[in-house]
TrEMBL record:
The active site is at K171. It comes from Aliidiomarina soli. InterPro entries: 3-OH-isobutyrate_DH-rel_CS, 6-PGluconate_DH-like_C_sf, 6PGD_dom2, 6PGDH_NADP-bd, HIBADH, HIBADH-like_NADP-bd, HIBADH-related, NAD(P)-bd_dom_sf. This is 3-hydroxyisobutyrate dehydrogenase. One of its GO terms (biological process) is L-valine catabolic process. Belongs to the HIBADH-related family. GO terms for molecular function: 3-hydroxyisobutyrate dehydrogenase activity; NAD binding; NADP binding.
Length: 298
């Protein structure tokens, strides 16, 4: 059993913190949303008065916030909690942010004697609920080993991609591919549908054929092919289009800095941007399916 300060209780952080409570840890929680905090307190977590209060006297600090600016502001800015974290604690940031911010956090926290790892996740809200996430870590091997027991209560795989920031680079490579697969799967299903195929039957065929992929298997974007996924719930919950847009922006920035060629990443970034500007920013990212609706009757 560990003492953990958990900050950011949204679609992902909420169920992750709940799993830590269920595993018997003492979990102090903080979020800007009172409702999110109340939901965790109902699960047995301890309510913190502030972010600084959440990290007082803990062994681990875990943050799960939307983007780099939220993470920088939580730890490093004027009201930041950098000075409130016990020196013996290990900070684990599981938000998807840019690698440069992750490296900056490692350096700045190190200056006050606090250790840090970046540990973004894959597996979606279903993985967060079932405790089967994949953690993609960057940082010192010894720190990742120390985190392993706690991460294992929220996930089933813990990888070390390399030094600080490497977890974030691996994560955005994965999410760029995910965006491409989701758009490609949506396009193929809409093509079949527009030509009289039942999307359920087409999905079954492609699942046993060479088009098989994760989005088709566990996150089908066409409503009611699978139940219990965001597409069958009006694209509510899950992973917001605007968060995917953010991740594609991170991938494109990283490509530009390194000279990598990401032609498909660029294309899918423009598709998600258009989709967001059409009013779908808060929907689940599988709603890109609607972006491929036929434009005219055949
Ligand atoms: P979310 O918007 O549902 O939750 C974010 C939470 O952070 C909110 O409850 C918000 O109130 C809180 N918050 C923001 N600023 C805060 C602050 N300064 N102090 C305390 N709380 C603060 O987002 P999410 O879907 O849970 O995603 C979180 C991170 O995980 C993102 O970086 C996202 O890219 C990544 N991610 C999401 C998924 C997914 O399927 N949703 C999957 C993998 C990774």
């Amino acid at each position: 059993m560990a003492t953990i300060g958990f900050i950011g209780l949204g679609n992902m952080g909420g169920p992750m913190a709940a799993n830590l409570v269920k595993a018997g840890n003492k979990v102090k929680v903080f979020d800007l949303s009172d409702d999110a905090v109340a939901a965790l307190v109902a699960e047995g977590a301890e309510q913190a008065k502030s972010a600084a209060d959440a990290v007082a006297d803990v062994e681990f600090v875990i943050s799960m916030l939307p983007a780099s600016k939220h993470v920088r502001s939580l730890y490093l800015e004027e009201q930041g909690i950098k000075g409130a974290i016990p020196k013996s604690a290990l900070v684990i940031d599981s938000s998807t942010i840019d690698a440069a911010t992750a490296r900056e956090l490692a350096v700045e926290l190190n200056k006050v004697g606090v250790r840090f790892i970046d540990a973004p996740v894959s597996g979606g809200t279903a993985g967060a609920k079932s405790g089967t996430l994949t953690f993609i870590c960057g940082g010192d091997e010894a720190d990742i080993e120390e985190a392993r027991a706690v991460l294992g209560q929220m996930g089933k795989n813990v990888f070390r991609a390399g030094e600080h920031g490497a977890g974030q680079v691996a994560k955005i490579c994965n999410n760029m591919l995910l965006a491409i697969l989701m758009a490609g799967t949506s396009e193929a299903l809409q093509l079949g549908k527009a030509n009289g195929l039942d999307p359920k039957v087409l999905s079954e065929i492609m699942l046993q054929s060479s088009g098989r992929n994760w989005t088709l298997e566990v996150y089908n974007p066409c409503p009611h092919v699978l139940e219990g996924v965001p597409s069958s719930n009006n694209y509510q919950g899950g992973f917001q289009v605007d968060l995917m847009k953010k991740d594609l922006g991170l991938a494109m920035d990283t490509a530009e800095q390194s000279g990598a060629v990401t032609a498909l990443g660029k294309l899918v970034q423009s598709l998600y941007s258009e989709h967001s500007s059409e009013g779908s920013g808060k929907k689940d990212f599988s709603s890109i399916f609607n972006h491929f609706e036929p434009k005219r009757d055949a």
